[in-house]
Each structure stands twice: as structure tokens, then as C-alpha cells.
Amino acid sequence: MSRDAYADAEAVFRAALTRVDPLAMMHRVLSLSGQTLRIATESECFSLDLSQFRRILVIGAGKASARMALGLERLLGARITDGVVAVKEGHVELLDRIRLIEAAHPVPDERSVHAAETVLGLARTATAEDLVLVLVSGGGSAILAAPYADAARSLSLADKQAVTRELLACGASIQEVNCVRKKLSGIKGGRLAKALGPAQTVTFILSDVIGDDLDAIASGLTVPDQTTASQALEIVTRYGLVDRLPPVVARLLADEAAGRAPDTPKADDPAFANKRTILIGTNFQALLAGRDKARELGYETLILTSHLTGEAREIASLFLAMAKDVNVNGEPLRRPACIIAGGETTVTLRGHGLGGRNQEMALAFLAGIVRAPKDVNGAVFLAASTDGSDGPTDATGAFASVGILKDGLVKGLNPAAFLAENDAYHYFEALGRLLKTGPTNTNVCDVKVLIVP
């Protein structure tokens, strides 16, 4: 049987995307019968009598929140009194009752401050007679920027931008990044829950975090913060960032750790008494759909893990080793084989190129092929982001194979040299091997697909 491994790898990835379409997931979780709103997932089921509420408000943030909002509008229609959702620029839908605000990602901008102020403004109008539906997905941390301020200290947007850039460049995990960001925010780490006061609140979350830690997704807007200021201070110290941060930021972290400034609210805070959280979509659900598609295409298939972490170029070595084992030893699967994994890796910036963690992983895979191309002949590796943008680029990810390596060498492109500059984008762009989907309006971390036909 003749196979197009590139097309098959992309088909597996797109099947994974389809499974975590926020619009479909909202319809799967929510149903309406008269005035009764039913919310049901694999783990819980409850109903709300909408006639008991004076208003229904919708607020939210994240790359997938516009499409989640579309699902709510189609279900509730004119029952929605007011709403505002902040999204990454370009990740939009046509909405009738819920306002959209576009902002920057991954580094916040003035629009991010405006978005946070608008969301907080609406949240603070909520009363005990209101139902607030909160839509949260990955990206919300940058999209909502409310620099911390109290009577003794005040952060600026520039301070938050500087911290974000340093954290993204040092190789910190998303959990570590968000741990620090929560301590510097007036909306993250459960502080939005406090702004909502007595209103009954249901938060719907689409996870882009390894392990689906609710307080790490979009920096935990409406859930208790399990992290401490001391942990945040340890993170910036461990990465050697203390002297690189704006002085006001370093002082705030030290003050919070010492109890001189309030830490983020914890589980015993009364603000969480009337707040419920529903997880509607995960990376593992996407992997299951990818597995089903691969089997449909005739591949022996294995989901390796949904908890992939670590430096992107190092994880590439794992996939390269697995491609060799399948080709040479028929393990852990016999050919034709498809190995799928999910998670979110990191990149420590060493050069001044352009790319993202998925492109970097694909390029590192190519750089590894150079040493033993025969062992992985025919294999195709695809690393891609489910949100449609890998790092600060318009690419979702990139393909890697012996054929792509050879095409690059013919053009005088050395993958190791591009890797040293963190310049995967320009390498793959020159060969036409970037995958571009445009904004997908979903976000459940990354998907890696290894095909050995």
C-alpha cells in the first residue's frame, strides 16, 4: 500500500484539533431545557434554574474563549444580559451579545490592560442575584494584564512586559511562568474570583497545561492559588533573574514572601464559596482522536504520553530514537506505525532567530538525522501547536524527515547552524515545510506525530 506519510501525519493532527473544537465541546457539555441549564461532563453533572437569576453575565479570556462564547450565545441567546471576552489578536468569532477585545500574546500590551480593566469592571457589578459564566483557556495570562497595585506599591505594564520576556527566554515551564505572573497581577491567581464577590459563578476551562492544573491555566483566574510567593521568589532566583527584573517587581515578590504584601487567595478564602469549575477539554482528548484517525488510516498506533515536558531540542532525541527502533527493531510498534504524544516543551534562547518550540523540535530532529539517516529513512515527524501559532510566528509547527534534510543540504542549509541561532522558522520556510493553519480558536498544548510507514 502506497502511503503519503506527510499527509497522514497532518490528518492525524487535524483530527486531534477537531476533537477539541471549543464550540463542539460547549455543545457537548451544556444543554438547555426551558429555564433549566444542564452541565454534564464525564465526572460531574448538575443543573441551574436560570429563572432564579436577575442577570446572566459572561466574561472570559484566552485563545479559545471567543469560540467558547459562540457556543454559549447559540445556546442561551437573549438570556445573556452582558458579556466581554478577551482573546489573542486574530482569534475571533462573530458574536451578537458578548463583546470581544483583542490583545497581544505572549507579551501583554496596552490592549491587555484595557481588556483586564473591562473584565474586572463587569465582574465587580455582579451581585448575589447574578449568574456569571466564565470562559477560560490558555493565553489568558498575557491577554489580561492588570499590574498589581496597592497603597504602598504599583507595577506598570512595562514592568510586566519585562518580567514576561525574561521568563519566556530562560526556559521556565508554563507552571513556573504563571506562578510568578500571578503574584504580580490584580486579576490572576484567584483575584478575579474576589472581584466577582457573591455572584454564583461557573467557570468553563479548556486546558493548555500539563496535568490540567486548574490554577495554572491562564494563571487561575477564578480558582484558589496553590502556589506561594516564596515559590515565585525561588523560581526567579533559580533562573538567575532577580537582578534582571525591574526593582519594583523584585521588591513586591520579597514583600509577598515575607507577608508584608498580601499573597494570592487560597482555598479557605470565602470568595470561592459559590464558585464552580468545569474542565471541558484536554490534550489527552485530542490525542485520543488522533489515535483513532491513525488507526483508521491503517497504522499500528501508540499514545506515548500527554505529559511531555523538557527542552524541545532534547525531546526531539526521544522521537528520533523511537523512529530508529520502529524501523530497525519493530519496537514498540511494527510498521506501519504512528506514535502520538502531547504536552508543552520549552526553549532556552541562545541565538537571535525566529521560531517556536515545535519548529525547534522538528529542526533538532533533523539535526539528529545527520548522524544516521538510514535508520530513520521514510519516517516523518510533525510537531505542532493546537492554537495555530507556534511561538511568535504564523506557523503551527513543522515537518521533519530524511527527505527534508536532503532538500535542505542541496540548498546549502545546515540544520545545526540554524538550531544554534534558534532560527527554525527560516530554515523550514526556505523548504516549504512549515505547517500553517491560521488561528484555530482552540488551545490544548502541542501534539507530536511520528509516522513510520
Tell me about this structure.
The mean pLDDT is 95. It is built from 16 helices and 15 strands. The protein has two domains: 5-11 and 284-452, MOFRL domain (glycerate kinase, domain 1, 3-Layer(aba) Sandwich); 21-146 and 185-227 and 264-281, Glycerate kinase, MOFRL-like N-terminal domain (Rossmann fold, 3-Layer(aba) Sandwich). A six-stranded parallel β-sheet has the order 6-5-4-7-8-9. The chain starts with a helix and ends with a strand. Helix content is 38%, strand content 20%. It is α/β, with parallel strands linked by helices and 453 residues long.
In short:
Helices cover 38% and strands 20% of the residues. The chain has 453 residues and is an alpha/beta fold.
Strand-helix topology:
Elements: H1 5-19, H2 22-29, E1 30-33, E2 36-40, E3 45-49, E4 55-61, H3 65-76, E5 82-88, E6 99-103, H4 110-123, E7 130-137, H5 140-143, H6 157-169, H7 174-183, H8 191-196, E8 200-206, H9 229-238, H10 247-258, E9 275-281, H11 283-296, E10 300-308, H12 312-329, E11 337-343, H13 357-369, E12 380-385, E13 397-401, H14 402-410, H15 415-420, H16 424-431, E14 434-435, E15 446-452
Helix pairs in contact: 1-11, 2-3, 7-9, 9-10, 12-13, 13-16
Side-by-side strand order of the widest sheet: 6-5-4-7-8-9
Q: Report the principal-axis shape.
A: globular
Instruction: Please provide the count of β strands.
Output: 15
Q: Using the coordinates shown, work out and report the CATH topology of the largest domain.
A: Rossmann fold
Task: Note the main sheet.
Answer: 6 strands, parallel
CATH C-level label of the largest domain: Alpha Beta
Alpha-beta classification: alpha/beta
Question: Could you tell me the strand content as a percent range?
Answer: 15-25%
* Distance linking N and C termini: 10 Å
The structural domain count equals 2
* Rg over CA atoms: 23 Å
Portion in helices = 25-40%
Low-confidence stretches: none
CATH superfamily of the largest domain: Glycerate kinase, MOFRL-like N-terminal domain
What is the residue-averaged pLDDT?
A: 95
* Helix segment tally: 16
Architecture of the largest domain, according to CATH?
A: 3-Layer(aba) Sandwich
